[in-house]
């Protein structure tokens, strides 16, 4: 059981998204940070993993509810057959429930008449125990131990465990320890233990050791003689018991070890004397190096001084032999700022953790070549050292090696290192793939990956291969290589309806539609006016497609578009600059990384960069339309709307001024740039034809109304022509 009632420590979370931590947010901070170990993994190394089958059984429900559920399961499974006369299950359940409602042991035993004797005695003892009548409870639990083996077995573990708990409360600690050991022996011999009490007994026995050592107070009103001389040994034994409990799957055991470490770090504890026990030192190293103090003290505690004092106490002890424990001391020395001691402790390191610490020390000295060498050697050694680092630490080590490779200009190698752990470091994969590698370098990398898994409708399972292919596809679209991009967009998920598909994710059918729209805008060598209108219609369709599906077709995975988050935020995954969150250029940038970053930027380099592209395409459509047509005005309206969506108010205003200067009055123009009607391209195709026809009709009508004048003009013109002709003939004769 846990040492004391756990206090619920609230964690304040800011409103907003929970962005993942990224290696490249601060490169120096990443590679110079202390190695953070995993507390549960480190505890698994404190004692050997037991070979037997005893395992913890823990739940959030009340103990009585668990016990009743276990008893019902015994009835349903027939576990009591042969221990009592045959009876229907309903009858047994009724007897069981009556016994549990009894207020005395005698009443409980009478109500349980007909159940197995051991079960009846246990129910009677539990009733007395819950009422605080410990002597009576002990008598019932001892009676179970005197039953024949076949009758005792069904409650042997439970009775022994409860005898231990009674002796705890009576202050008979030696007897309690013996009872808890008996519970484990019975379980190891095959006695039923549905509630996992054998494993729980380890924690109960450990608590007795801590009480006698004076580290915690007894929760029971008994006099306990503490033994200061034996305190180190008692605490070490408690740590062993809790570690075994944790290794058998108990979260309670793990929490209890954290509580022991916290208690030992109290400034009033004579820690140096207790640290003579190696297992206690290993516990404290695991606790501090896994950053557990950050989560178990409140804000009013001077945590830094407590941790620093504990680190000094641990490091003052004689160093262990070379190996995993020495490497952990080196990591602790590094964490405590004792770099000189960390250098000494890691000097002859051959295993991953020691090499890792040595690499960080080399970088602090400015020896980047040695640092990269040790980092690389540490990563290589992971496959040879067995189980000295937890999976999270292995992933972090791989990530730090990738950062150092990036700093040396080995960009593809860096991505190669990160991709196996892409689900952890996707933001860093994004940065290298989208902003550091060239398009062709990324294409070569993607072509070397295994085929992505088949798409599934409504599947949220991340697939790094498919996601990287989609990233490449959108990047190809951005640089005008749309036909090549088709090979990298995913196929449409079978059976997926339009409503089920994510509008911010494009498949190959969407890409084909975009390519067709793009090709429809190409001009021939000659165009009739109505053909120009058709091309304007195609450009407007492309503009609409760009605005509505731009995120899916050409959006950047990271900043500025953040397709990875469906554009919900301007940044958070990936990097908006090569130096990440650092305000000054990182000294760990690759030689030409900054220029590569600049060259790979979307154009324009703003959030939702495709929106101004949509506005420009709508403007290009307007250029091809008759200026006095409704289609011209409506297309300009949409262009202004897209400019406003891009937060380019100046551009939107210029578009409006263009409409005022060149367009015809439209009754809907009072909402220009806000609510826009569909352009009437069909009317625009016949715009000039209707203008010419109207002019002819207007001219012809005017001529008929003034026929006399027209005839006079015609006759006059004919006479003038005759006079001119005769004058020219006379002049010719005289010449």
What this model shows, in words?
This protein has 735 residues and is mainly α. Among the domains are: 58-195, Serine Threonine Protein Phosphatase 5, Tetratricopeptide repeat, CATH 1.25.40; 503-570 and 607-685; 703-734. The chain has 36 helices and no strands. Helix 15 (278-289) crosses helix 18, helix 20 (352-364) runs antiparallel to helix 21 (368-381) and helix 32 (630-645) packs antiparallel against helix 33 (649-662). The longest helix is centred in the C-terminal third of the chain and has 28 residues, at 707-734. The model is unreliable at 1-15 (pLDDT under 50).
The parts where pLDDT drops under 50 for at least 5 residues are 1-15
* Discrete helix count: 36
Report the sheet with the most strands, covering strand number, pairing sense and barrel closure: none
In helices, the fraction of residues equals 55-70%
Multimeric state: single chain
Bulk shape = elongated
In round numbers, the mean pLDDT is 90
Terminal Cα separation, in Å? 136 Å
Number of strands: 0
Radius of gyration: 41 Å
How large is the share of residues in beta strands? under 5%
What would you call the structural class? mainly alpha
Keywords: Membrane, Transmembrane, Transmembrane helix
Biased composition (Polar residues): 574-586
Region (Disordered): 570-593
Transmembrane segments: 703-724
């Amino acid at each position: 059981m846990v040492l004391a009632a756990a206090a619920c420590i609230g964690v304040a979370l800011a409103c907003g998204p929970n962005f993942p931590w990224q290696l490249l947010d601060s490169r120096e901070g990443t590679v110079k940070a202390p190695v953070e170990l995993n507390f549960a993994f480190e505890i698994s190394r404190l004692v050997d993993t037991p070979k037997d089958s005893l395992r913890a059984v823990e739940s959030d429900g009340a103990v009585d509810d668990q016990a009743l559920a276990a008893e019902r399961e015994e009835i349903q499974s027939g576990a009591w057959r042969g221990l009592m006369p045959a009876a229907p299950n309903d009858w047994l359940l009724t007897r069981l429930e009556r016994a549990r409602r009894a207020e005395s042991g005698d009443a409980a035993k009478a109500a349980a008449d007909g159940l197995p004797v051991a079960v009846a005695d246990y129910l009677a003892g539990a009733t007395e125990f819950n009422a605080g009548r410990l002597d009576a409870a002990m008598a019932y639990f001892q009676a179970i131990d005197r039953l024949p083996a076949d009758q005792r077995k069904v409650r042997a573990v439970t009775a022994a465990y409860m005898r231990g708990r009674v002796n705890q409360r009576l202050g008979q600690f030696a007897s309690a320890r013996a009872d808890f050991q008996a519970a484990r022996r019975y379980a190891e011999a095959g006695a039923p233990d549905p509630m996992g009490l054998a494993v729980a007994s380890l924690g109960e026995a450990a608590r007795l050791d801590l009480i006698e050592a004076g580290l915690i107070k007894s929760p029971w009103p008994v006099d306990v003689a503490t033994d200061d001389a034996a305190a180190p040994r008692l605490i070490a034994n408690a740590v062993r018991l809790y570690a075994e409990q944790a290794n058998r799957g108990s979260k309670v055991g793990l929490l209890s070890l954290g509580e022991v470490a916290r208690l030992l770090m109290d400034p009033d504890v004579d820690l140096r004397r207790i640290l003579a026990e190696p297992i206690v030192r290993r516990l404290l190293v695991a606790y501090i190096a896994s950053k557990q103090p950050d989560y178990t003290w409140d804000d009013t505690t001077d945590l830094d001084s407590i941790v620093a004092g504990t680190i000094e106490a641990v490091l003052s002890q004689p160093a262990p032999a070379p190996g995993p424990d020495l490497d952990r001391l080196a990591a602790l020395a590094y964490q405590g700022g004792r770099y000189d001691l960390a250098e000494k402790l890691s000097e002859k390191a051959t295993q991953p953790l020691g090499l890792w610490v040595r690499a960080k020390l080399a970088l602090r000295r400015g020896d980047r070549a040695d640092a990269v060498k040790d980092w690389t050697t540490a990563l290589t050694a992971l496959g040879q050292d067995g189980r000295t680092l937890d999976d999270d630490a292995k992933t972090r080590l791989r990530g730090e090696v990738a950062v150092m490779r990036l700093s040396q200009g080995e960009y593809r190698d860096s991505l190669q290192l990160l991709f196996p752990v892409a689900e952890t470091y996707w933001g860093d994969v994004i940065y290298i793939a989208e902003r550091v590698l060239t398009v062709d370098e990324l294409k070569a990398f993607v072509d070397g990956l295994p085929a992505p898994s088949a798409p599934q409708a409504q599947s949220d399972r991340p697939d790094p291969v498919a996601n990287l292919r989609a990233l490449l596809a959108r990047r190809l679209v951005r640089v005008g290589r749309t036909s090549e991009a088709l090979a990298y967009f995913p196929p449409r998920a079978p059976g997926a309806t339009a409503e089920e598909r994510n509008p911010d994710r494009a498949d190959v059918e969407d890409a084909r539609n975009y390519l067709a729209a793009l090709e429809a805008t190409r001009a021939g060598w000659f165009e009739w006016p109505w053909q120009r209108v058709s091309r304007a219609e195609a450009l407007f369709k492309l503009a609409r497609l760009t605005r509505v599906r731009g995120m899916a077709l050409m959006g950047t995975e990271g900043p500025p578009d953040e397709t990875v988050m469906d554009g919900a935020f301007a940044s958070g995954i990936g990097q908006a600059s090569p130096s990440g969150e650092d305000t000054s250029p990182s000294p760990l940038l690759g030689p030409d990384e900054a220029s590569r970053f600049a060259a790979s930027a979307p154009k324009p380099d703003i959030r939702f960069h495709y929106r101004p592209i949509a506005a420009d395409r709508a403007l290009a459509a307007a250029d091809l339309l008759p200026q006095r047509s409704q289609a011209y005005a409506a297309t300009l309206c949409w262009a202004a709307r897209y400019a406003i969506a891009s937060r380019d108010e100046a551009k939107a205003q210029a578009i409006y001024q263009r409409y005022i200067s060149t367009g015809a009055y439209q009754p809907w123009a009072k909402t220009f740039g806000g609510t826009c009607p569909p352009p009437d391209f069909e009317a625009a195709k016949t715009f000039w034809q209707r203008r010419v026809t109207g002019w002819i009709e207007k001219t012809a009508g005017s001529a008929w109304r003034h026929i006399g004048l027209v005839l006079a003009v015609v006759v006059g013109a004919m006479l003038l022509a005759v006079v001119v002709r005769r004058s020219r003939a006379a002049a010719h004769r005289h010449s």
